[in-house]
Design a protein that fits this description.
heterohexamer; A mainly alpha (about 220); B alpha/beta (about 220); C mainly alpha (about 250); D mainly alpha (about 60); C: about 0% strand; globular; D: about 60 residues; mainly alpha; about 65% helix; about 0% strand; rod-shaped; binds protoporphyrin IX containing FE; binds adenosine-5'-triphosphate; binds magnesium ion
Chain lengths: ~220, ~220, ~250, ~60, ~220, ~220
């Protein structure tokens, strides 16, 4: 399993450039919004957490659709499917590797973007924390979509469509927890704990669904 | 160890490809599948490897007399048309990954990567990225993958495509060694593999007017 | 012992596509007839019932909005059940069932969305707000479309069915969200009032046409669903017979 | 009661009518064409094995 | 050439699901936004053009990286390279097909999304116009990146560094032209003409660079 | 028509794979490349097809006495290890695309798609998506691609991998017909192709002590 994790990481670094394209896209998104909102710093800092979250969400989608497809194309998937180790576990490890390669860099880059958006330190911290906790959920849901996309030769967009509706709760709780950290009356903990719960939930459901789809789509 | 296939049939798309195939193999046996293009050889191998669900029937291995039957896939190496190696990683990285990921099946040990490279006749280029190799060299290293992790059953789909005469001989030797150690081999092929007293199963393809879709 | 075996044979008899076609042929005219009658009665009641003191005649929209909204969720539930059928028993009829249901569900959802906004404009003063109920219904609509697109993008029907089954099941989380969104988040939308603990909160005056319309919509759904399933079965038979013809021609 | 929001009500009913009408129409048309294709295949002698008339000499 | 155009279109439609998918994708992205920033209609209409442009960028990027790679993997690229027809033309046609399949539907769907985002008719028109003019530029730049990705097995990094920074100007001029159409003091024409110029420039440079990269591919 | 290769040499990565290969072929000739795995057969074919840049030397065709020499690639079909067909499109769509895109070379006409399918022995399944075919069926249709658009030079890299005996014979017949019509064939192979009086070029691989890196 560790072997699989390391291999996927190595592949992501060596061939995908995954991390960087994600971060760059993320930055592009965040850089463009101020053009829309205008130079109103107050407003910017208000919508900051939302924008950072949306950017992270969209950046994760890039490249997610190839999670299993690359393995299918060169025949590796066949062998992964044959093993005695539960397929769910294999999928889970692949998700972890993908998250490490493309989700984690976003989390690390987010404080920088928070500065761009003129957010307070507390808000930046909150966004980073919620992203750290919430972004794996996006990968896990995405894995289910990617498993479906294996049967489609170019599933890219379709995957995102199938995935995005499910991601909505993650976004809602992530953003509201970030706001709650800054605004006084609202407590931070409830939405944050909800976010944790969602991530744990999808950490189970996502790989399960992906494994089911993979088993059912091999040919 | 015995491998038992019982009344296997399979569909591709909506069509039945073969029906009622049963056979039993035991340690040291080899079976060669032959038949014209499109007759269902690859399909049968994928059913055995658990990659396609059989329409009816089962395929199981029994490790020892009285042991619990297990699905064939858990005891098998499958070498398909594609080599299951990443072009971006070096040969060593690829082989090390499969060795660690697949692991050994009870009752055997995989061999060292360098040693396996020796055995397929390609010493000294394991540090190259896999994508830098010629078609035949790639295929040879895909064979080396069978050696680094032990699995008693080898399921091979046209293993010698792209191999030169030299490699054909090497390959036949590998199979014989594997059989001598109690392994089982099932291979689909269009060329003679040069195996001693192998059983053979000739696929003829289904009679088309017997086709019946599921609905 | 003998009882259960009889039951299983009956169930499997129903699940045989050919029997299904025969059954559909005999049931469909009746269902269509009853549906038409119910619609006539329901429409009569809804046009003759007096308006609400608060909402005016716009309650009339309720008689189509609410049944359509219910049906949009029920259709998805039917699909989810069929999805289990295709994953667990791999039954071809289950495959056909959820494939055939998706477009119908999409239409009902679209009706709920449109009538809802047409009701929202006079009541809330806006066509659309991004609140939880409305958005989750919109998401449901997108999921229907996504499933239709997925089915169209794959041409091996049984594989397509199994893969979309997985998605249908995953997407099922949306249904409770739609249902309970009004309770979990405070929104503009009405909370459930027809089916509620301790009796309905709606005047019997409005309840009658609403229930009749709801039954009519439900019957309409099943009629269309059976017809669409029949069409789909025919479509697959045609496809396989064409393939067979081609192969026989090829053999000479 | 006045028909204060007649526009919205009628639009709602008309839209519903059109959408459901289209759905019904499409389903009927689809069935019609499928049935015709089946007929054509039938005429050209291609049938399901189960629907094929038993020939003499066929195993029972 | 028409054959190539039609084939690429067919592939996009067949395997991705086609125009419907693009529109659906766009709609899901837009539907997700209000969850982040909240249902404030005023704010939505203000960031509307930026969101629509970002959605278009993302939709174009998803799948663009495989523009040549899919052809390389199955050997088609070899044959495309061998022909007497200038390679630049082939690349250009492939870009056009990609744009027709994934850019054009977005342009056509953008008014609908404008409505969702509560934008004024004038702003909607402006966004549609700028998208129509500007989105091909994204495809052309992306093509150069995709070609580099094919040539270098480890070109991932380079691609992201290459593509996104070049895309940023397109995005900025597109968005600012859309705003200029609505807000009074700023004139619409200058940024718009700039956008046109950028697109024309990249329509030449992008395929040229891509063709150059493909010709020098060394295996 | 003549094909002239003059003093060809090529590198892969930093290493010289072969050096100073020259030959000339004229209408109706066939040349078979043989040699062990990794000896540079595929490399030579890719150099001829213009897909790899030659380190030194040129490869050109001369259509008629006195005509301007043209690069080989413009007059050639190249059939590599991969079939250059899209799995998502039907066989007909694939073939029609290549027919229209490649077009005919001066002095010949491609044949009809259905007819080509006949010739490779697979009538009646051209409406299936390419991805639904078995490995051998896919390879056969890749051969049909050579027929639908006319090119005088065929460059074939292990054309008969995955083909059954039946298809081998069909293929040999296709090549002979092509040669009889004035075509030229260059093929790399590990198996006998069954061609009449074909010339042969044995690649030996570069002597390792002759290897020189380019610094
Ligand atoms: C586009 C906007 C709308 C959408 C998507 C929508 C969706 C739904 C859904 C899904 C239900 C079924 C809920 C359940 O069974 O619990 C429902 C029920 C209902 N809706 Fe709407 N609705 C919309 C607008 C409106 C408006 C504007 C009104 C009236 C002011 C309204 C009044 C009702 C009522 C009274 C019910 C019945 C609640 C019950 O008794 O369960 N809706 N709507
Ligand atoms: N993409 C590449 N990059 C670097 N080196 C390569 C590449 N492809 C092949 N080589 C090297 O070039 C040499 C010749 O390879 P080539 O593919 O021409 O051999 P071949 O004669 O076709 O062998 P086979 O019979 O196995 O197909 C090999 O030693 C291989 O390692
Ligand atoms: N993915 C697929 N979907 C639908 N049908 C398929 C698929 N793959 C193969 N088939 C069909 O199944 C039949 C058997 O194919 P299979 O690959 O098993 O043949 P094979 O005996 O391995 O042939 P070959 O010698 O050419 O490799 C063929 O008629 C083919 O058209
Ligand atoms: Mg095969
Ligand atoms: Mg080679």
């Amino acid at each position: 399993m560790i072997a699989l994790y390391l291999r996927d990481l190595k592949l992501a670094v060596r061939s995908g450039g995954g991390a960087l394209i994600g971060v760059l896209f993320f930055m592009t998104v965040v850089a463009v919004i101020p053009f829309g909102v205008g130079p109103d710093l107050n407003l910017l800092s208000r919508i900051g957490p939302a924008i950072v979250w949306i950017g992270a969400l969209l950046a994760t989608l890039l490249g997610l659709d190839r999670l299993f497809q690359a393995d299918r194309d060169d025949g590796s998937l066949d062998i992964l499917l044959m093993q005695e180790t539960p397929l769910v576990l294999t999928v889970f490890v692949k998700c972890l590797a993908h998250w490490t390669a493309s989700g984690l860099p976003l989390v690390i880059a987010s404080p920088l973007l928070g500065l761009f958006m003129n957010m307070e330190p507390l808000a930046i911290g909150a966004v980073m924390l919620t992203l750290l906790v919430g972004s794996p959920a996006i990968t896990f849901i995405g894995a289910a979509g990617a498993a479906v996309a294996v049967v489609l030769p170019r599933g890219g967009l379709l995957v995102s469509i199938l995935v995005l509706p499910l991601v909505v709760p993650v976004l809602i709780f992530g953003v509201s927890a970030s706001y709650a950290a800054v605004e006084d009356p609202a407590p931070f903990l409830p939405p944050f704990l909800f976010l944790v719960a969602i991530t744990l939930f999808f950490a189970v459901i996502g790989p399960l669904a992906a494994a089911l789809a993979l088993r059912n789509s091999s040919d | 160890m015995r491998l038992l296939a019982d009344d296997l049939s399979a569909r591709r798309g909506e069509e039945l490809i073969f029906r009622g195939i049963s056979f039993g193999l035991s340690s040291g046996d080899a079976m060669v599948l032959t038949g014209p293009n499109g007759s269902g050889k690859s399909t049968l191998l994928r059913v055995l490897a658990g990659l396609l669900r059989a329409e009816t029937g089962t395929a199981q291995v029994i490790e020892a007399e009285g042991a619990e039957p297990r699905p064939v896939r858990e005891a098998s190496h499958y070498l398909g048309h594609r080599n299951a190696m990443k072009l971006e990683l070096t040969v060593t990285e690829n082989l090390a990954f499969w060795r660690d990921y697949i692991g050994n099946f009870a009752g055997g040990e995989g061999i060292d990567i360098e040693h396996a490279a020796d055995l397929v006749g390609l010493t000294g280029i394991t540090h190259l990225p896999y994508g830098y190799l010629s078609a035949g060299q790639q295929r040879r290293f895909a064979m080396a993958k069978l050696l680094v992790a032990h699995r008693p059953v080898w399921i091979l789909d046209e293993p010698t495509a792209a191999l030169d005469a030299d490699a054909d001989a090497i390959f036949a030797r590998l199979i014989e060694t594997h059989r001598a150690q109690g392994g089982l081999v099932i291979a689909a092929t269009h060329q003679p593999l040069g195996l001693r007293d192998a059983r053979s199963l000739v696929m003829t393809g289904f009679e088309y007017d017997e086709l019946e879709a599921r609905l | 012992m003998s009882d259960t075996s009889i039951q299983t044979t009956r169930l499997s008899a129903l699940a045989n596509p050919t029997r299904f076609l025969a059954l559909a042929a005999s049931v469909l005219p009746w269902m269509a007839g009853i549906t038409a009658i119910l619609f006539a009665v329901g429409l009569y009641f809804s046009f003759t019932t007096e308006g609400d003191y608060q909402q005016g005649m716009t309650v009339m929209i309720m008689y189509i909005h609410v049944p359509a909204a219910w049906l949009s969720m029920m259709c998805y539930t039917v699909m989810a059940v069929s999805a289990i059928g295709s994953l667990v028993w791999r039954h071809p009829l289950a495959d056909v069932s959820h494939k055939a249901a998706a477009p119908i569900g999409a239409v009902f959802t679209l009706i709920a969305l449109i009538t809802g906004s047409l009701w929202g404009k006079p009541m809330w003063g806006t066509w659309w707000v991004w609140d939880a109920r409305l958005t989750s219904v919109f998401v449901l609509f997108l999921m229907y479309l996504g499933l239709i697109a997925l089915n169209r993008a794959m041409d091996d029907p049984s594989r397509a069915a199994r893969v979309s089954s997985v998605l249908i099941l995953v997407g099922f989380v949306n249904i409770p969200i739609i249902k309970f969104s009004v309770d979990w988040w405070n929104t503009l939308h009405q909370p459930a009032s027809v089916f509620k603990m301790g009796g309905s909160a709606i005047d019997a005056e409005f309840l009658r046409p609403l229930l009749i319309m709801a039954i009519a919509f439900t019957l309409l759904f099943f009629t269309l669903h059976i017809m669409a399933m029949r069409n789909e079965i025919w479509r697959r038979r045609i496809a396989s017979q064409r393939r067979l013809a081609a192969r026989m021609a090829a053999k000479g | 009661m006045t028909m204060d929001h007649a526009f919205y009500i009628y639009t709602a009913y008309i839209v519903t009518f059109v959408l459901i009408g289209a759905l019904i129409g499409w389903t009927l048309l689809d069935g019609h064409f499928r049935k015709r294709e089946l007929k054509v295949l039938e005429v050209s002698g291609i049938r399901r094995r189960s629907a094929r008339p038993k020939r003499e000499g066929d195993a029972p």
